[in-house]
Amino acid sequence: VSPFIDENTRKKFLIYAGNDYQGPGGLVDYINRDFIPDFLGGDALCDVPEGGLVPKSLYRTAEELENEEVKLWNETIYKSASVLKGAPHEVLIEITEVSSVITWDFDVCKGDVIFNIYHSRKAPQPVKRDGLSTHNLACPTSNNVQLIDRSWMLGQDYSMVETALTCREGESVQGSHVTRWPGYYILQWRLYSSPLCTSSSRPRVDDVLASLQVSSHKCKVMYFTEVLQSTDF
After folding, report:
1. pLDDT score for 52
2. In 35-155, where do the E strands start and end?
3. Residue ranges for the chain with pLDDT beneath 70
4. Which residues touch 157 (CB under 8 Å, ≥6 apart)?
5. 13 shares its domain with 116
6. Which of 183, 215, 217, 206 is nearest to 92 (CA)?
């Protein structure tokens, strides 16, 4: 027992190894034999039935478990988003005062993602999706917003202001960006997919395993963003 526990408290613990509890100083010296389970050498019958097959009616799908988790997160300041193959999730932040600080805190709950920050002087509009698109059929209730139009050109309509960051499943990421221009900043999470091979190299084992793990082409992040004045940062 760790020495930080008070001596009076330590005396309340009994630690046995193997079958020591059946010998002198064992359980019967402290507990009436009528209350000790039979599998510990007592007289109390402990009838624990063997488990059977769980009925399929009680099975729970991965989507049901995910929705419950999202419901719990909805009671906090964090938001949930799905990141799909070919459909990144994007958050728009309008900055009117230069040197304002954009902060973020997010957890990668499922899959691997790439995090980017872009700037544009013109306001993007949420991309309208076809109601029968593949992504909508696969996940009709997903929280996924796209702002960067496919017609936009990087370096012309918008620019990258931070180096892309690869984030692995289970990681918690915090960061900030001091804005240099007014306008619209877009925080983007997109699906990470590593190239399995190039013309000069063979596929690595870890890359192959990573590709198998993201075979569902769906990731999930929980995130929180805030804009602070430079004097408050």
Report:
1. 83
2. 79-84, 89-95, 101-110, 113-120
3. 1-4, 67-75, 128-142, 194-216, 233
4. 120, 122, 149
5. no
6. 183
How many independent structural domains does the chain possess?
A: 2
Domain that holds residue 18: 7-40
**CATH at residue 153:** 2.60.120.680
Tokens found for residue 134: 């593949």
First-residue to last-residue Cα distance in the chain: 45
User: Are the C-beta atoms of residues 153 and 120 closer than 8 Å to each other?
Assistant: no
Task: Return all residues near 54 (Cβ < 8 A) that are at least 6 apart.
Answer: none
For the whole prediction, is pTM greater than 0.70? no
3-class DSSP string for 157-223: CEEECCCCEEECCCCEEEEEEECCCCEEEEEEEEECCCCCCECCECCCHHHHHHHHHCCCCEEEEEE
pLDDT at 64: 74
Q: What was the pLDDT predicted at 164?
A: 95
